[in-house]
């Protein structure tokens, strides 16, 4: 099997105060599944705190969710399994960003782009959301593999704008897809069969807005190592202006011989949609122009009056503006959801940190408390899986009996069932209403429920999570519309 090498570099640039980009590279020794590498670049947006938070959550969540998805599948990971696992991992990252935004009003509206590459055997599985990019350098030719999810790219695709016009458009930063902006996200997934000497570049738009394709290809070609290539690309983007955060991850497959690459300039295609030519100003007699101007003014005044925006008065200035109507829409309090209306996703690993079989406690503030295998008490983020070791003075409680049962905010009981490898959910009246994770929890030992009704469980020494969502509502039969007669 050909070796995989990589390099990572990221810089704040010369204009921004903080770096909202995040870049990640994990090799086989850092991944529990049999992959040759996982590489991610995320470019956050949504203000100082929001952008940093969104990109951080993605690079923290993606590896954990990807490995959990692959662990739940049968057999050795291959390109097909990795494609679906990467898609589901990005869904989990999107959920985590949305949840964090809902929990903290200071970062609401945050989101992030994301490009990711999973190397398995001799195939690169690529994912894209937003306008960060993945390039492939092969045989002195540079190809952009991903397609930007941006407004100007939609115009280019429709034939209404040249690529050069898109680069200089004031709308080039308007993206049409991002992680964490909506409740769902659909990434583009591509697979590329790798050849000896291939180079992949994952980068944020802070790099591609500063460097041309020729600059990128020349820098990638001359660098002797992947780390040199990543560092030199960031230096070149800063030298060209550095107007944004700049991140680059360079991945090389097999042996590579440096070369001086010169790309031919690509023609800028004409738009396929014909545009109406701008008419030249006509030379009309001055009197006709004055009369036309007066006609426009009178017509405009009459239009304002007819539309109800202005009214005539008997006093100067004889035309007064009518204050606009304000429509007040009262906000009605929402009824809290009923616990019995929730359905649950399949369990996924929340963190790879090993913990003891008990206890497990949810604090209803997006946190969990557990005991690490070395006996230290830890707090685990319910959204990202990040682990914080608690002060040494906190002692882990003895006994695990209470950890096998817990309740949610509405009094529903959740009980560990080792026999069914599941969590049993009971109503306050004692009626069993659901079986969660049936057959998917090898050795469940403790259960806890978060403030959003997500169910957390310790199984096989790890913390897993089953995300809750409201089941689709259907109208009762008595409310169905009746036909004639």
In terms of topology, how is this protein built?
Elements lengths: L3 E8 L9 E6 L10 E9 L1 H26 L6 H25 L7 E2 L1 E7 L2 E7 L3 E6 L2 E4 L6 H7 L5 H6 L19 E6 L4 E6 L1 H4 L4 H10 L3 H14 L6 E8 L32 H22 L2 E3 L6 E3 L20 E3 L3 E2 L11 E2 L4 E5 L5 E5 L5 E3 L15 E3 L5 E5 L4 E5 L5 E5 L7 E6 L5 E5 L2 E5 L1 E3 L15
Antiparallel strand pairs: 1-11, 2-3, 3-4, 3-5, 5-6, 6-9, 7-8, 7-10, 10-11, 12-13, 14-27, 15-26, 16-17, 17-18, 18-19, 20-21, 21-22, 22-23, 24-25, 25-26
Helix pairs in contact: 1-2, 6-7
What does this structure look like?
With 485 residues, the protein is of the alpha+beta class. The chain folds into three domains: 4-253, 4-Layer Sandwich (Phosphatase 2c, domain 1); 287-321, no CATH class; 339-470, no CATH class. Helix content is 24%, strand content 27%. It is built from eight helices and 27 strands. The strands form seven sheets. Strands 2, 3, 4, 5, 6 and 9 form a six-stranded antiparallel sheet that branches. Strand 25 and strand 26 (462-466) form a beta hairpin. The protein is globular.
List keywords for this structure.
single chain, 485 residues, alpha+beta, Phosphatase 2c, domain 1, 3 domains, 5-stranded antiparallel β-sheet, globular, disordered C terminus
């Amino acid at each position: 099997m050909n070796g995989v090498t990589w390099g990572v570099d990221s810089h704040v640039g010369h204009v921004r105060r903080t770096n909202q980009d995040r870049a990640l590279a994990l090799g086989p020794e850092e991944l529990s599944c049999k992959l040759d590498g996982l590489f991610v670049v995320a470019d956050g947006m949504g203000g100082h705190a929001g952008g940093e938070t969104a990109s951080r959550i993605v690079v923290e969540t993606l590896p954990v969710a990807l490995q959990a998805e692959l662990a739940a599948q049968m057999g050795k990971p291959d390109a097909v399994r990795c494609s679906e696992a990467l898609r589901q991992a990005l869904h989990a990252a999107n959920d985590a960003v949305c949840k964090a935004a809902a929990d903290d009003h200071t970062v609401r509206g945050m989101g992030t782009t994301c490009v990711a590459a999973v190397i398995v055997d001799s195939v690169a599985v690529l994912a894209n959301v937003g306008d960060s990019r993945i390039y492939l350098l092969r045989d002195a030719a540079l190809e952009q593999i991903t397609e930007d999810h941006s407004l100007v790219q939609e115009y280019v695709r429709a034939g209404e704008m040249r690529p050069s016009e898109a680069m200089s458009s004031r709308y080039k930063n308007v993206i049409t897809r991002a992680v964490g902006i909506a409740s769902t996200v659909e990434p583009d997934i591509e697979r590329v069969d790798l050849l000896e000497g291939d180079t992949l570049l994952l980068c944020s738009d802070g790099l591609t807005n500063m460097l041309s394709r020729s600059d990128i290809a020349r820098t990638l070609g001359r660098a002797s190592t992947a780390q040199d290539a990543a560092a030199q690309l960031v230096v070149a983007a800063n030298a060209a202006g550095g107007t944004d955060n700049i991140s680059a991850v360079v991945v090389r497959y097999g042996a590579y011989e440096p070369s001086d690459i010169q790309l031919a300039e690509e023609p800028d295609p004409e738009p396929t949609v014909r545009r109406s030519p701008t008419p030249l100003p006509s030379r009309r007699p001055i009197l006709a122009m004055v009369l036309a101007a007066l006609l426009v003014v009178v017509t405009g005044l009459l239009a304002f009056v007819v539309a109800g925006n202005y009214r005539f008065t008997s006093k100067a200035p004889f035309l007064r503006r009518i204050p606009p109507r304000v429509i007040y829409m009262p906000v009605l309090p929402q009824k809290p959801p009923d616990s019995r209306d929730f359905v649950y996703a399949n369990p996924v690993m929340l963190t790879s940190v090993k913990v003891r079989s008990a206890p497990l406690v949810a604090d209803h503030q997006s946190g969990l408390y557990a005991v690490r295998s070395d006996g230290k008490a830890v707090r685990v983020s319910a959204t990202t899986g990040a682990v914080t070791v608690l002060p040494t003075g906190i002692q882990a409680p003895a006994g695990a009996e209470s950890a096998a049962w817990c309740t949610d905010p509405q009094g529903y009981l959740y009980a560990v069932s080792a026999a069914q490898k599941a969590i049993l959910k009971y109503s306050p009246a004692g009626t069993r209403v659901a079986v969660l994770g049936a057959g998917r929890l090898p050795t469940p030992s403790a259960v806890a429920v978060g403030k959003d009704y997500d169910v957390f469980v310790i199984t096989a020494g790890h913390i897993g999570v089953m995300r809750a969502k409201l089941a689709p509502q259907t109208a009762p039969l008595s409310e169905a519309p009746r036909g004639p007669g």
